[in-house]
Design brief:
Helix content: 25-40%
Structural class: alpha/beta
Order of helices and strands: EEHHEEEHEEEHHHHEHEHEEHH
Distance between the termini: 60 Å
Radius of gyration: 20 Å
């Protein structure tokens, strides 16, 4: 069944090689996919009922994950376990494979070898050999991926309206609630072209929160945010822990942000996990790679 809330596909364009391709339509779809639940886009979820009344945390186990892009070995035998309900940060400088790892968890990338288990179900295993996935997940990409043709409120409520999980009055209430959580009270009717980069990021986060995900993933959530807004976002994530049971996975190079909100932190370097620990353990690590990253990003912590 077609969805009246989705934009019409673009007319085919002619590429330099003479082949037809849906350039604009593909771009629109990729933008829509960002930040919305996998249950909308992937057939392996089954026709499960949508219940937004409660959330639960999911466990994630990554075993010997490897990924190549050409000759570049981006992920190197990555092993990692994230516990249900944890707020878990993956830190490290740019180019270490953090975002690539995050995209594997939501199946936007496929590994060359290795496996990821969510609630002990292999997500890259043969389809139909195990139980259907029964959790909701959403992802907030570094690029906000909002529809410029929709208002702020329409962007936030897009998934709810597509899935038709509640009446319109409740959809509008949820939109208001989620926008309030990210500090955008009363901004429902603004166009995305009227927003700053930081405001767009917060709208994208509100859109992902609208479906009360059991697993929510953030790719560099503090990018383009000023210090005050970053602090507000950190407090929002902490408050979510008080009212939901979901698992939160965050990729960031913002060490102060990670130390403030995390239950545990993993540091990546050169495509591998080099250290895992609580914020206290990470700050006290004697690993020279961790120490170097901490010192250059916090200035002065070396002596602690």
């Amino acid at each position: 069944m077609s969805c009246p809330f989705l934009p019409e596909p673009a007319e085919p364009a002619i590429g330099a090689n003479g082949k037809n391709f849906m350039a604009k339509g593909t771009l629109v779809f990729e933008k829509l996919k960002h930040g919305l639940s996998g249950s909308f886009f992937h057939p392996d979820n089954g026709n499960l009922p949508v219940d937004l009344r409660d959330t639960r945390g999911v466990g994630i186990r990554i075993e010997r994950l490897n990924k190549y892009f050409g000759d570049s070995h981006v992920l190197k035998d990555v092993n990692l376990e994230i516990l249900p309900g944890e707020t878990f940060c993956i830190i490290g400088p740019s180019g270490t494979g953090k975002s690539v790892l995050l995209k594997h968890i939501v199946k936007l990338e496929s590994p060359d070898s290795g496996e990821i288990y969510i609630d002990e179900v292999p997500i890259f295993g043969p389809a139909g050999n195990g139980p259907a996935r029964d959790y909701r997940y959403s992802m907030v990409f570094q690029s906000s991926a909002l529809f410029n043709s929709l208002t702020v409120g329409e962007n936030v409520g897009l998934w709810l309206r597509e899935k038709r999980v509640c009446k319109e009055q409740r959809v509008r209430e949820i939109i208001k609630e989620k926008l309030a959580m990210v500090g955008l009270v009363g901004k429902e009717d603004l166009r995305t072209s009227e927003l700053s980069g930081g405001m767009k990021k917060r709208v994208a986060i509100a859109r992902s929160l609208a479906m009360n995900p059991d697993l929510i993933l953030y790719d560099e959530p503090t990018a383009e945010l000023d210090p005050v807004t970053t602090d507000e976002l950190a407090n929002t994530i902490l408050k979510l822990k008080e009212t939901t049971k979901n698992t939160t996975v965050i990729v960031t190079h913002d060490l102060n942000f990670a130390l403030y909100i995390s239950d545990r932190i993993a540091m990546m370097h050169g495509g591998s996990i080099v250290e895992i620990g609580t914020p206290r353990e990470i700050k006290r690590s004697q690993n020279p790679i961790v120490r170097g990253f901490i010192y250059t990003t916090t200035k002065g912590i070396r002596g602690e």
